[in-house]
Write a structure and sequence with these properties.
Blueprint (H helix, E strand, L loop, with lengths): L5 H11 L9 H76 L9 H18 L3 E8 L2 H8 L1 H16 L7 E6 L2 E6 L4 H16 L4 E2 L2 E2 L2 E8 L5 H17 L5 E3 L13
Parallel strand pairs: 6-7
Antiparallel strand pairs: 1-3, 1-6, 2-3, 4-5
Bound molecules: guanosine-5'-triphosphate.
Guanosine-5'-triphosphate binds next to strand 1, helix 4 and helix 5.
Length: 270
């Protein structure tokens, strides 16, 4: 409501005064004042509607802001869940990769990982023109452990021997389980003299476990073959195997070195 001003009071008093009833300007003043009041009323209504509109717009803005904040919170929650899900998937993938590359019993590299490493290393060494050495190790009289103490004890001995061998090689050598009670050690950029030193460390570490198999302390035999750039992998593995067989024949708990250069196996497996 508009306030009544002193001018309003004055005009209203003039219009009410009987002495001006016949004044020629009275009618015009009355009309003008009436017009003024109705314009004022109109302005008040427009102002009121505008206030209402602004209030509604403010409310709408606030509810939009509120909805935006709620959506943002939901999105943040979804992003957190997605991050956690991705981390779980990453861990699962790692675990899967780890399981597919490692032997479940000993934790060493399995045959698949050994073959991958062999291919990678032989290609790298071919480019660099450098040798590597492969060592096949086989536990002696292992069957007697199983026969005397049971398969579980045999498994435990395999784990101990695997640990002893892996800790006897350098960190860039790869010691893996080739199968059964047989192990393969890949020694990149390694010539025969260094490889034989590592084999001797392994042989001693196994003997030092003092695991008894029947009448024997458990030992291992080793076959060593140098892989020169250009050699076929399958041929080198085969030479190491032949040398291992020779070590067994010559009394076990020893190492034999394959003669250089002979390529007995088919290169098709490379
Ligand atoms: N406990 C256990 N035994 C295994 C495993 N893999 C292979 N073997 C056993 O290892 C034994 C290997 O026996 P053989 O091949 O006769 O060789 P060995 O008794 O070690 O004799 P030499 O190699 O000639 O010195 C077998 O009895 C297999 O059952 C395994 O994962 N766990």
């Amino acid at each position: 409501m508009n306030d009544v001003t002193p001018l309003d009071l004055r005009i209203e008093a003039l219009l009410a005064d009987a002495q001006y009833d016949d004044h020629p300007l009275r009618g015009a003043l009355n009309e003008l004042y009436g017009e003024f009041r109705s314009q004022l009323h109109l302005i008040e209504r427009v102002t009121h509607v505008s206030d209402l509109y602004q209030h509604m717009a403010r409310e709408q803005n606030q509810s939009l802001l509120e909805r935006y904040r709620r959506q943002l919170k939901k999105l943040e929650k979804i992003a957190r869940i997605s991050d956690r899900y991705q981390a779980v998937m990453r861990d699962l993938n790692e675990a899967l990769k780890d399981a597919s590359n490692h032997d479940a019993l000993t934790g060493l590299a399995n045959r698949r990982m050994l073959m991958d490493a062999l291919r990678t290393e032989s290609n790298r060494l071919l480019r660099q023109g450098r040798p590597m050495t492969l060592v096949l190790a086989d536990i002696d009289h292992f069957k007697q452990i199983n026969d005397a103490y049971g398969h579980e004890r045999g498994d435990a001995v395999l784990v101990d021997i695997a640990r002893a061998m892996a800790s006897s090689v350098r960190e860039y050598d790869l010691c893996g389980r080739w199968g059964g009670e047989e192990f393969l050690i890949v020694m990149p950029e390694t010539g025969l003299p260094e490889a034989l030193e590592a084999v001797e460390r392994m042989r001693r570490a196994i003997a030092a476990l003092h695991v008894v198999a029947g009448e024997h302390n458990v030992t291992a035999s080793f076959g060593v073959a140098e892989h020169l750039p250009g050699d076929h992998l399958s041929a080198t593995i085969s030479r190491a195997d032949t040398a291992l067989y020779a070590a067994k024949k010559l009394g076990r708990n020893r190492c034999e070195v394959a003669p250089a250069g002979s390529q007995p196996a088919s290169p098709a497996a490379d």
